[in-house]
Design goal:
Length: 248
């Protein structure tokens, strides 16, 4: 069925709009996909905000030239060509399509219904080999899932450790806590006893110091009392004897 000029213009505008929004654009060659298989692929791509569009090579070339100024050679676009556009994660749509390609490829029978031909990724035109390699990379969502999983692993171990410790404390905690409290009280009581003994010793020292001061004061008072010496008494008695002799 021939495509009218109006329809071609409509498809071209849709391609240009898709290429503007897309974070990656990849091309597949389809030689044996059924309508139901294409519907299956489109449904899978919608899960990651990506699209799958069949279009004529001339329209794809025009859209790429106008939007990204990229010249596509027909060598990169063999057979019937479809475009996979990823609008959020640049790799997510390619990863989904790559899983579909693997599922629909039977190497033993040599049956290849869909395969990569090229891509426009991070501002560069990539060939078939590079496109396959990019499509085989894990998507951002997958990487984040792995990162979260690796972060949760040690946290889960820590949670299990605390859970086991909590159960053990529940079983043995009362006795353990009681003994700990008893030890604390005992230590406090010992400290209080030490303080009291120190206070008593201080009072004793103060009393001894006061007694010592009192004794020193008494000694000083005694030493200041006048003492009548024997020599002075003899001198005072001598004139009396002389006076008696003179009277005689």
């Amino acid at each position: 069925m021939a495509v009218t000029k109006a329809k071609k213009i409509e498809i071209l505008e849709e391609l240009k709009e898709s290429f503007k929004r897309a974070n990656s654009i990849s091309f597949t060659s389809n030689s044996g996909l059924t309508v139901s298989e294409m519907s299956e692929l489109r449904k899978s791509l919608r899960e990651v905000n990506a699209s799958f569009t069949l279009a004529k090579k001339t329209l794809i070339k025009l859209a790429m030239k106008e939007i990204h100024n990229v010249e596509l050679n027909y060598d990169l676009l063999p057979w019937q060509i479809a475009v996979v556009c990823s609008y959020d994660d640049a790799i997510a749509g390619m990863t989904k399509a790559n899983d579909f390609i693997k599922a629909k490829t039977d190497r033993k029978l040599g049956e290849i219904k869909i395969t990569w031909t090229a891509s426009y990724f991070e501002g560069q035109l990539q060939d078939k080999a590079a496109t396959k390699e990019i499509a085989s990379m894990p998507s951002r969502e997958t990487l984040l899932g792995r990162l979260v999983g690796s972060m949760q692993a040690p946290l889960s171990s820590l949670a299990r450790f605390f859970d086991a410790a909590s159960k053990k404390l529940t079983e043995e905690g009362k006795d353990n806590l009681g003994s700990v409290e008893a030890k604390k009280v005992e230590k406090v009581e010992i400290k209080e006893e030490v303080k009291i003994e120190e206070k008593i010793e201080e009072v004793k020292q103060e009393v001894v110091a006061e007694e010592t001061k009192t004794e020193e004061v008494k000694v000083e008072e005694v030493s200041e009392t006048p003492v009548v010496s024997e020599e002075v008494t003899a001198e005072e008695e001598a004139p009396v004897e002389e006076e008696e002799n003179n009277n005689a």
